[in-house]
Amino acid sequence: MADRVSGVVRWYNQVRGVGYIDGDDGREIRVDGRAIEDGTFVVEGLRVTYVPTEDENGWRAEHLNIAKHPQGAAGHE
Predict the structure, then answer these.
(1) 74 to each of 69, 70, 77, how far by Cα in Å?
(2) β 47-55/5-13 pair status
(3) Are 7 and 29 spatial neighbours (Cβ–Cβ below 8 Å)?
(4) Left, alpha or beta for 39 (phi > 0: left; psi -120 to 50: alpha)?
(5) Cβ neighbours of residue 55 under 8 Å, at least 6 residues apart?
(6) For the CA atoms of the chain, what is the radius of gyration?
(7) What is the per-residue DSSP string for the chain?
(8) What gap in Å lies between CA 77 and CA 69, rounded to an integer?
(9) Which of 4, 25, 33, 45 is within CB 3.0–4.6 Å of 70 for a Cys-Cys bond?
(10) Taking the model in full, what pTM does it have?
C-alpha cells in the first residue's frame, strides 16, 4: 500500500458525498464518501489521513481516516 498523507478537508458536500482535501504535500485531492473508513462523515476543517491514488480524473483519496477533529467540533450538532 502507498504511503499515507495528511491533509485538511477544504470542502465536503454531505448530500452528494464528495469533496476536496488540501493535502500537506501540496496536492488537491478529491474525496468520495465511499473512501471514508471509519463509517462517519467529514466536514470542512477536519484533519484526515489517506492514501493518494491517481486516475484519469486526477488525484483522489482512498482509505480515508479522521486524524483530528477541528476546534469546537465536540459540540457540533
Answers:
(1) 8, 8, 9
(2) antiparallel
(3) yes
(4) left
(5) none
(6) 12
(7) -PPPEEEEEEEEETTTTEEEEEETTS-EEEEEGGGBTTS----TT-EEEEEEEEETTEEEEEEEEEEEPPTTGGG--
(8) 14
(9) 45
(10) 0.81
Amino acid present at 27: R
The cell for 53 is: 491514488
Distance between CA 58 and CA 24 in Å, rounded? Answer: 17
* pLDDT, tens only, 47-67: 999 999 999 999 999 999 998
